[in-house]
Design goal:
Layout lengths: L1 H32 L1 E8 L4 E2 L3 E5 L1 E2 L3 E2 L12 E8 L5 E7 L8 E6 L10 E4 L4 E3 L5 H13 L5 E8 L2 E9 L2 E2 H8 L2
Antiparallel strand pairs: 1-4, 1-11, 2-3, 3-10, 5-9, 6-7, 6-8, 8-9, 11-12, 12-13
Length: 187
Amino acid sequence: MRPAIWILFTVTALAQWAVPLREAWVLEDVAAHGDVFRFDCQAPDPSDLLRGRYLAITLKDNGAPPDPGFKPGSEEEVFARLGVDKEGFAYFSGVGAQPPASGPYLRAKTAKWWPFNDKRVVLQPPFDRFYLNEQLAPQADEWFSKAVRDSTKKIWVEVRVKNGLAVVTDLKQDGRSFRDILRSASP
């Protein structure tokens, strides 16, 4: 009886480590090998007590036309197809109940409150936060607040997408990474 308990304990301990490690591996794979998309954004900077400081990412356009006959409900998981406009920015080109047969897409949820109509579905993208180093966060928050409100400069979030999953990799202003901008601005 005693060896069975140790075997059960070992299997349980390995399972507790395997699940989070697999999740981290999947997201690292997306960050390393996913397709890069740029989304035009706007934002404030809140803080999460348990997970730390982050920049809240709000896309300027988070809606898309639904597939014919598709009428999603509130906070329903959907598959949003991605397109790229003439300026190189990504947008949601359509929303359906199933992943598309080809082309890039994201798993997303419909917004909690949105006007239900046949022409447009408002989405909650799977990326809405960009977590930062605690020391860098105050300076990044100040930069982000100013940059988003400055209409002469373009700010976007760079996202890697693979198999419906998304990982935020950078924030850029007029093609420069926010890290480079903050380094050049610090004394």
